[in-house]
Amino acid sequence: MTTKLDKSHAEAFSERIWEQEILPALTEYIRIPNKSPSFDRAWRENGHMERAVSLIEQWCRAQPVPGLKVEVVRLEGRTPVIFMEIPGKGDDTVLLYGHLDKQPEMTGWAEGKGPWEPVREGDKLYGRGGADDGYSAFASVAALRLLAEQGLPHARCVVLIEACEESGSFDLPAYIDALAPRIGKPSLVVCLDSGCGNYDQLWTTTSLRGLVQGTLEVRILREGVHSGSASGVAASSFRILRQLLSRIEDERTGRILLDELFAVVPEQRIAQAASAAAVLGDAVYREMPWAAGARPMADDNKELLLNRTWRPALSVTGVDGIPPIASAGNVLRPFTKVKLSMRIPPRVNPRRAADALKRALEADPPYGADVTFSLSEPSEGWDAPPLAPWLDEAMQRASEAFFGQPAMAFGEGGTIPFMAMLGEKFPEAQYLITGVLGPQSNAHGPNEFLHIRCGKKLTACVASVIADHFTRGA
Fold first, then answer.
1. Are 60 and 136 in contact (CB under 8 A)?
2. Where is the Peptidase M20 dimerisation domain (predicted)?
3. Which of 84, 179, 463, 465 could in theory staple to 159 by disulfide, Cβ–Cβ 3.0 to 4.6 A?
């Protein structure tokens, strides 16, 4: 199996466009604090999102891709979308997707690094949003430019870059409806917002977890009271919170206790997890920045992969009502408020899961405390349709050609709401969900980096798969 691309030219092209064009633009992009609207309510007034949109729009417009049309689409009251069309042969369509909004800063960046300070160290470009997911627009257009340079035919392509993904893509359904006639009915969807098990082969994502988020508040007093007077009379809001969380999670094992949040894991996904664990070995958990002496939740690497892809898991991602230690007086605090992030498996109805969480947390509150669980819009998980033989072969060809290793498949623990939307609208489509978020790349956290060498190879792989898509079945 060999790629349709001229391998030497493709590698030289990808090296050149990344070093001379993509990386300079990404460096400027990282400097823009264009946080997703959930983290920057004044995103319009601040103008950072507009700066990021303008940077990517201008870069794409300058690319010598025959027939390329670039448009910033704006619906009233919503974040903008960059929509691109590239003509092709035949009636078929390929949809390429990415996003340009970013997660907030997070603390803990290494000395000399920061969320808005791009720093290159060898093959790593540090800074918020480079890997998640600012590179996607550049790499998508670069892959199509590569096909044009080599004169390889392809189907009509559309590129959709949204600005709301990190907030759950709540603006995207309106754009999908508005742009439906121009999007058409894609038979292949390429998404560059996912991860890779290592940087040495092409990885495709077979499933994504959904997400239920909400704010749990426990209020026991109207105001704080001296702990010497109140403790033993009024319960600590923190202790009540602990009791409530124990209703939904076993604190000893992390197992979620609500049946509504589980799905049957398909045998194929279990087999893929076993194959990925065999390739990755202890890298499944060694990529984590463990504290001294810390260890993972299980000893079996396959089980760890299934834990993060097909089983629900709870994280507490924010806290209000607790003062910093330096200013913490001897006061029984009136309330404790936490933000809960519950990852749910594919095939679990997110609204049913959200309702189950709300019932469990709010029912019969201890000591008659005022307990409220305020939900955000839940996001559905996604399970890929069966892989078509042509796409399996195309991914293997691309990975062998540009990585020198076979392609691999595994599930991801994150959420890409767009995939669930597309799965409903285009159930017959095939999906290449991939990305550069590999070991220690730490999306959403401190020291996020983009692996440059992987990005270069992935660009060529995407071009190769799109070329094979055009000739599938021929």
1. no
2. 207-365
3. 84
∠ CA 4-99-75, rounded to 5°: 120
Cβ contacts of 153 within 8 Å, gap of 6 or more = 88, 89, 467, 470
Q: What is the pLDDT of residues 239-283, one digit of tens each?
A: 999 999 999 999 999 999 999 999 999 999 999 999 999 999 999
Whole-Å CA distances, 415 to 79, 171, 272, 326 = 19, 16, 19, 37
The number of residues in the chain equals 474
- Tens digit of pLDDT for each residue in 26-52? 999 999 999 999 999 999 999 999 999
Closest-CA residue to 461 (of 390, 407, 384): 407
Characterize the bridge pairing of strands 313-320 and 335-344.
antiparallel
pLDDT at 424 over 90: no
Which secondary structure element, helix H or strand E, spans residue 12, and what is its range? helix 7-17
* Number of C-beta neighbours around residue 286 at 10 A: 12
Residue of 248, 132, 145 lying closest to 191 (CA atoms): 132
The residue written with tokens 């990415």 in the block is 98
Owner of token pair 């670069």: 142
As a whole number of angstroms, the distance between CA 154 and CA 187 comes to 13
How far is residue 271 CA from its own chain's centroid? 23
Element (H, E) at 230: helix 227-230
Given a cut of 70, is residue 473 above it in pLDDT? Answer: no
Q: Where are the alpha helices (DSSP H) in 37-191?
A: 43-46, 48-61, 135-149, 172-183
Best CA proximity match to 129, nearest among 92, 85, 99: 99
Q: 412 forms bridges with which residues in the sheet?
A: 208
Q: CA 263, 265, 269, 275: dihedral to nearest 10 degrees?
A: 130
Q: Which pLDDT tens digit goes with each residue over 170-229?
A: 999 999 999 999 999 999 999 999 999 999 999 999 999 999 999 999 999 999 999 999
